[in-house]
Amino acid sequence: APPAFEAAAAGGKILQVVHVENGATLTHTTVMPADNTVNTSSEGGELFTLAVTPANASNKLIIQYIVHCSHSAANNFITGNLYQDSTSASINTINSTVIRTASDTFAMVGWHYMTSGTTSETTFKVRAGANNGGTFRMNGSGAVQHGGGTLLSGMTIWEIAA
Prior knowledge:
The protein is mainly β. Strands 1, 2, 4, 7, 9 and 12 form a 6-stranded antiparallel β-sheet that branches. Strands 3-8-5-6 form a 4-stranded antiparallel β-sheet, with no helix packed on it. The protein is elongated and about 70 Å long. The protein starts with 13 loop residues before the first strand and ends with a strand.
């Protein structure tokens, strides 16, 4: 007898992918504490934003972001955070090692999975900074851009059907 086929289970289908990336350098001097508190949207500097409009409030969002960065001062702990819309509290935090010497360059990668909770446009923001004074730099070190614009920091959001 011929095999019987069943319909695929609902959910799991990628509905949309949105992406932003930046190869330019960006600097700021706003401190972002590295302690046991939730960072707020007034700490660190904003690096990039990305909006998505989910098709269903029950769908899942996978948010991935990468930040290539350095800091002008040694002995700093660098922290990156993900924020949603105008919410002040971070919804996801990434950390790196302590900067050993001024202008060490490294990458921080963040990953966040959540239920969209809305069918309205929602905007995600990445902010990062160091716990002490000095200059935070994305996509370079010292006063130098790295990779001629090909060292990219950015964020990708996937919407997955529930």
